[in-house]
Structure formats: C-alpha cells, structure tokens
UniProtKB/TrEMBL annotation:
<keyword id="KW-0479">Metal-binding</keyword>
<dbReference type="InterPro" id="IPR036909">
    <property type="entry name" value="Cyt_c-like_dom_sf"/>
</dbReference>
<dbReference type="InterPro" id="IPR008168">
    <property type="entry name" value="Cyt_C_IC"/>
</dbReference>
<keyword id="KW-0408">Iron</keyword>
<keyword id="KW-0472">Membrane</keyword>
<dbReference type="InterPro" id="IPR051811">
    <property type="entry name" value="Cytochrome_c550/c551-like"/>
</dbReference>
<protein>
    <recommendedName>
        <fullName>Cytochrome c domain-containing protein</fullName>
    </recommendedName>
</protein>
<keyword id="KW-0349">Heme</keyword>
<dbReference type="InterPro" id="IPR012218">
    <property type="entry name" value="Cyt_c_BACSU-c550-type"/>
</dbReference>
<keyword id="KW-1133">Transmembrane helix</keyword>
<feature type="domain" description="Cytochrome c">
    <location>
        <begin position="43"/>
        <end position="118"/>
    </location>
</feature>
<feature type="transmembrane region" description="Helical">
    <location>
        <begin position="6"/>
        <end position="25"/>
    </location>
</feature>
<dbReference type="InterPro" id="IPR009056">
    <property type="entry name" value="Cyt_c-like_dom"/>
</dbReference>
<keyword id="KW-0813">Transport</keyword>
<dbReference type="Pfam" id="PF13442">
    <property type="entry name" value="Cytochrome_CBB3"/>
</dbReference>
<keyword id="KW-0812">Transmembrane</keyword>
<keyword id="KW-0249">Electron transport</keyword>
Amino acid sequence: MQKWIMSGLLGVACIMAIILIFTLPGKDEVAKEAKPTMPEVTLTVDQAEATLKANCISCHGEQLQGQVGPNLQKIGATMSSDQLYGIIRKGTGQMPAFKDRLKDEEIANVALWLAEQK
C-alpha cells in the first residue's frame, strides 16, 4: 500500500515538474524584464510635464521638491535617463511601477526630462 502511495506521489511530482519547465519564463525573458531598455524617443517637454503633473506631483510635490517621494528637482545630476526609466517603469521601494499605467514612450519622455534636471 505504501509503495503505491509513494509511486503516485512521485508521478504527481514529475508531472508538476514538467508543467513548470514549460510554463516558467526563460532566462531571456527574465533578463529583459529585469533590465528594460529605454525606447528611443525625442524629448517633448510639454508632454513630459503633463505626464509628471498627472502622475507624480501627488508624491513628489508640485515643484518636484519632495513630499512622500524624494526631491526630483536635481535628480539628473545623480541618475541617467536609463536609470530613471527603469525606476519609473518597474518601481522601487515605495515608488509604484508605472509600466501598466503609462506607455513606454511616455515613461522614456519623463525619464529624459528628469535627466536634464541638474
């Protein structure tokens, strides 16, 4: 009786392992998600400022002086547009991810604008 139970459990474990092999993301997919590449966009100041006003001032303040979130007025002096893009897209700490709320081009435009704030 125990042999039947053990062989049944082993069979179920093998089936689960096979299912996981085919459903888990591969290394390439995980790497792409871990370090997203910023799309090439031309900075549009008006659009960047509108996106910031609609999405960022509630945490970073009207003048990006910092409130709940950090001061962004001179963030370009310490971070590149690629770094900013990754943080805005994926979020970090208390910063929420915006990849589901904004288009990649909008995020890239904001990252470019912020990178110029020095």
